[in-house]
């Protein structure tokens, strides 16, 4: 089965400045891949490149085997978009917005859109401007699913939402993935990704630090904790290091060698990886 999304050596630039460089990742059907990194890392630019809003200046990307460079309109038909920005006319009702914007998608079915709205408890008669943030997200998801995309892009849609709704939202996305739709999800809320993501890509200042499945990530990086003397002994192998109240901590990359010192070893959280790996390229 071919990947839903494949990016090889792709980059994006504005003027003479590269905003992204040498991005390589693969997303299989039904997978949720998180995209992490600090503000300005390039997450939104990556999404704009996949959508065709930023020109691909090197490499290429393929959606279900179709090249974005060669057939951009076919690629865009495979995308569902859930962004924090308001790209729908807010003076329209939910039902009317679906009918108007659905014309731009060959596979869009209005009855499917209305059925998803009922399933997600979105009032189709309500004006978009009057929807709560959570309901507006559900409206976007209903619209995306109604044109049967292979990939849904989500650029930090959860900011400002309460924890109860975020859990409900992630459970909803789990059901979407069971139908074979893949999700690329940029967020600062790394705890959710640790629970739900199949893979993670990290960006830093427009560069890709890694793109790994969760099991690969767990094997490749380790947090080590010990005394200052122990950490001095390991210093040449540490990617980064910091002093805590009662011990020191560092990040190591697995290379098959024994640590040869009695330190505590644990799996790093995604927030740990951002802290230690940001700028390491």
Explained architecture:
- The chain is of the alpha/beta class and 281 residues long.
- It is built from ten helices and 14 strands.
- The strands form three sheets. The chain has a six-stranded mixed beta sheet, sandwiched between helices.
- Helix 4 (110-119) runs antiparallel to helix 5.
- The mean pLDDT is 90.
Proportion of residues in extended strands: 25-35%
The total number of structural domains is: 2
Highest CATH level, the class of the largest domain = Alpha Beta
Q: What characterizes the major β-sheet? A: 6 strands, mixed
The helix/strand order is EEEHEEHEHHHEHEHEEHEHEEEH
| Count of individual beta strands | 14
Helix content: 25-40%
Shape: globular
Please outline the helices and strands.
Elements: E1 5-14, E2 17-27, E3 32-36, H1 43-51, E4 56-63, E5 66-67, H2 72-76, E6 79-83, H3 94-101, H4 110-119, H5 133-146, E7 151-155, H6 163-178, E8 182-186, H7 190-196, E9 199-204, E10 207-213, H8 214-220, E11 221-226, H9 228-234, E12 238-243, E13 248-253, E14 264-266, H10 270-277
Parallel strand pairs: 3-8, 3-9, 6-7, 7-8
Antiparallel strand pairs: 1-2, 1-4, 4-5, 9-10, 11-13, 11-14, 12-13
Helix pairs in contact: 4-5
């Amino acid at each position: 089965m071919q990947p839903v999304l494949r990016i090889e050596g792709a980059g994006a630039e504005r003027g003479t400045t590269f905003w992204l460089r040498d991005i390589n990742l693969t997303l299989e059907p039904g997978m949720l891949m998180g995209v992490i990194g600090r503000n300005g890392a390039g997450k939104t630019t990556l999404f704009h490149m996949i959508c065709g809003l930023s020109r691909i200046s090197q490499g290429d990307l393929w959606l279900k085997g179709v090249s974005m460079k060669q057939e951009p309109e076919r690629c865009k038909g495979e995308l569902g978009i859930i962004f924090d920005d308001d790209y729908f006319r807010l003076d329209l009702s939910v039902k009317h917005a679906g009918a108007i914007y659905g014309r731009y998608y060959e596979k869009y079915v209005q009855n499917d859109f209305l059925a998803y709205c009922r399933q997600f408890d979105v009032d189709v008669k309500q004006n978009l401007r009057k929807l709560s943030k959570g309901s507006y997200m559900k409206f976007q998801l209903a619209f995306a699913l109604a044109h049967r995309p292979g990939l849904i892009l989500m650029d930090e849609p959860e900011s400002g939402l309460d924890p109860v709704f975020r859990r409900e939202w992630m459970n909803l996305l789990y059901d979407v993935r069971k139908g074979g739709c893949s999700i690329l999800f940029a967020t600062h809320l790394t705890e959710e990704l640790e629970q739900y993501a199949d893979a993670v890509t990290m960006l830093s200042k427009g560069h890709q630090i890694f793109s790994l499945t969760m099991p690969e990530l767990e094997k490749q990086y380790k947090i080590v904790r010990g005394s200052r003397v122990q950490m001095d002994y390991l210093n040449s192998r540490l990617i980064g290091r910091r002093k805590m109240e009662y011990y020191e901590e560092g990040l190591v990359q697995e290379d098959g060698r024994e640590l040869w010192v009695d330190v505590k070893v644990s799996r790093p959280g995604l927030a740990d990886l951002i802290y230690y790996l940001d700028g390491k390229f």
